[in-house]
Fold these 2 entries.
Entry 1:
Amino acid sequence: QAKRKGRNTYCFFNDEMGSAVSRRLRIENGLRYALKNNELYLCYQPQVESKTGRIKGLEALIRWKSPELGMVPAGEFIPIAEETGIIVEIGKWVLENVCKQNKIWLTNGYNFDSISINISSIQLKQADFLDTVREILDTSGVEPQKIEIEITETAFMESLEENINKLKGLKDMGVKISLDDFGTGYSSLNYLRRLPISTLKIDKSFIDNICDSSSDRDITYGIIQLANKINLNVVAEGVEGKEQVDILKNMNCDIIQGYYFSKPIGSNEVEEVLKRGYFSI
Ligand code: C2E
Ligand code: MG
Ligand code: MG
Ligand code: MG
């Protein structure tokens, strides 16, 4: 910015410092207007049943096209939105819009089991979180069963008891819950038993190496067997290749999600995909 103002402006940062700081600040600043200015939108990634190729569901993933910065990856702006607290507002927008879209698709005859929504720990922490979800479900007229909430294990390790109660509240409403990025946090098999979840999502970092690394393959198989044993659905995230699909299918991994079948796509494309209903597998 100093540059834009011309040569006579004082500059306290060198270029490198300046660019790192200003990107952070620009994201933080830009996020404040992103909602109002309609810069946020949702993409959806299909989740595919490994036995049949049927599209079981979709995961909603937020996208931000900033007029100043262009496309900013969710992995970059979500943590900043969390630090500033604006994630609460953004998260509510995501819930509302996914529920609206969900209802429209079902009303128009596009079928799926559920749409997954990522929920930040900051959002979960809000005292009125359950009321917000209930209100949005009521307003949109979506069956709670058609919604699945994704939370990461690290998200609720702090104030575990409180969070378990919130998740129970969601479950009592009929909303499904899945544990995202499983295996990357402080997984304790002890609390796994106590969580009212229906699905485990095996993190991409394990899936990446299942073809080449026998230990990652063993870990993945172990998680799948555990999930099957305790009656949880299991999703493999970030599956990109045919060989991975074959391995996961042989391991009885129920659901596969990844670029191999589809990248996250816009709602028009989703309708094409749902019309077909299946991927060849
Ligand atoms: P996540 O929930 O674990 O989502 C999976 C990420 O992996 C997504 O990145 C998805 O686009 C990407 N992915 C899926 N399949 C493949 C694959 O085969 N290869 C590769 N390389 N990547 C794949 P994305 O959309 O950039 O989101 C990153 C993270 O940002 C998400 O991780 C989630 O933690 C967060 N996020 C995204 N949308 C939301 C949202 O609406 N609310 C909240 N709170 N967080 C969100
Ligand atoms: Mg997720
Ligand atoms: Mg994940
Ligand atoms: Mg993730």
Note: The longest helix spans residues 87-107.
Entry 2:
Amino acid sequence: KERTFIMVKPDGVQRGLVGEIMKRFENRGYKLVACKMCTPTKAHLEEHYRDLKSKGFFAGLIEYMSSGPVVAMVWEGKEAVKMGRMMLGATNPLQSNPGTIRGDFCIDVGRNICHGSDSVESGKRESEHWFKDGEIQEWSPAQSKWVYE
Ligand code: GTP
Ligand code: MG
């Protein structure tokens, strides 16, 4: 039961795309196990994006990501990390295929509306960074046996 951390960024929230993004994961058959809206602090985001600290866009990224509410989620299911990245599309929306979330809804890399974990390990690290124990639910969707062989 692989988990990925998916977040609708402040621009995605402002543009009313929360439902659209969640719908795609639900429709695909992934299971929502955690969800909340919050305005992240800079310190929280600096830890989340710690691998990008040396990048020139880091300060702008933290400014943008802390500018308003985000919707943080954990989705669970077979190959959730790899499929989540595929559903989001390339980091730079100008390179995201149509049919992906970024490829359908945005243009600029600095306003790419959503985040998805890039490895199983970061899926676990990010889920634990954004959610406490007990905020992640264990449940069995009735449709599971129709989604998985
Ligand atoms: P996330 O799912 O958001 O982590 O994106 P990613 O894994 O596809 O890309 P990465 O982790 O390398 O970068 C994190 C975020 O930083 C991106 O989603 C962008 O919002 C932003 N970013 C990455 N590269 C650039 C850049 O060259 N310029 C600007 N302005 N922002 C960038
Ligand atoms: Mg990333």
Note: The chain has a mean pLDDT of 98.
